[in-house]
Design brief:
- About 40% of the residues lie in helices and about 15% in strands.
- It has about 475 residues and is an alpha/beta fold.
- The protein folds into 2 domains: about 240 residues, D-Maltodextrin-Binding Protein, domain 2; about 180 residues, D-Maltodextrin-Binding Protein, domain 2.
- The longest helix has 19 residues.
- The two termini are about 30 Å apart.
Length: about 475
Amino acid sequence: MKKKSVATLLLLSMAASLFAGCGGGDNDSAADANKTDSASNAAPSTEAADTGDDAAAPAASGDGAVYYLNFKPEQDQQWQDLAKAYTDETGVPVTVVTAASGTYESTLKSEMAKTEAPTLFQVNGPVGLASWKDYCLDLKDTDLYSHVKSDDFVLKDGDAVQGIAYVIETYGLIYNKTVLDAYCKMDGAKVDSIDKINNFATLKEVADDIQSRLAEVSEAAGPDYNLAGAFSSAGMDSSSDWRFKTHLANLPIYYEYKDKGIGETDAIEGTYLDQYKQIFDLYITDATCEPAMIATKTGDDSTAEFALGEAVFYQNGTWAYQNIIDAGLLTDDDLGMMPIYIGAPGEENQGLCTGSENYWCINKNASEADIKATEDFLNWVVTSDTGRDSIANQMGFVTPFDTFDDGYTPANVLVDASNASIDAGQTQVSWNFSTIPSEGWKDGVGAALTEYAQGTGEWDAVKTAFIDGWKTEYEATHN
């Protein structure tokens, strides 16, 4: 049994080399991460690693092969390259198929029904495990499990280790430090330091003020900036809605769980839905677009608005770093990340949202040879220089494996912000959205949020989807 607590691991690993939490998408993400989640809409990739050719189905067979159904579209190419490197080194065929954003669960169901099913797949947490535990090999005797720092990063069914987190991510409000610093020096600014923004009331004051002075703040920030809103667009298309129906929804779930001292529930009460409403209202009113437009706004739109200097705040996570930098305007010196404040009691000491919804599982119904090949592949990924370099430096993942402590930490200023939050003693917000009863619940909340923002629905419909939908979906998935 691994004995380190979450707090101990956070201090040891995130401060020194890690702890962040995903994105997700529909698994979700956040981050999904749906962490998860970058907002890629790429079609599923089916490149076979041993030939480089597209393959309609993996070539897994009795002589030992690996078929990985990957959840993260934004890391597809890196996984294809890593699979090819392993095949070149060992001769073992490794196929990586990547589900399109928002389609992982449906793709997994389809692929598991095939003769050559995935040998390696992933679930998002306890709810995902409940659906797939009959397919999950007990990993407690694997080399992979021996490298996990804490059981806080595994999923168990009794004593069986059925899933192991491979990426730990963090999300919050990414902000443009250059613009905010310039704003704080302006006459009439609501705060004189970014550090003073430590609760919802202050965040709203600042955002409202920036929204009312966009041209003035742009001029103060410099010629590269032409602000169109305090917040980038809260897109509610499928590439972006996970940020609000899952990642933002985590905050009212987290605080309700915290009040009750629980880790899951069959009936959410919605104690913090008023706070959920006020942060969502802020997102859609102090924004780069009119609320009626968010149904068509994408994740790429939101990222570009922030990365090109049109918005000051952008809700997303550590996984968004490279896309922001790749746009070419912002550098590490321009980026910071603060907690998502919703107006909950004591949030002045709230930290960032940290956790995982990406747990590797090995298909126990695969052949013995394919299971062994998959175990060996995963061990190589987390112990070899090639694997660790790809995971840390190319994919930018923070991991819970002790093999990454010696020089394999991603160069990511947003991970640094997460480290700083922990070092400051802030209470990290756990990823409780992995206990959401179903994708149907998320879809119902997302649809109600969209209708509300467009003015074609009322907030009461969001409440109904949140509270009644939880009970209905929980009963449907547990009976």
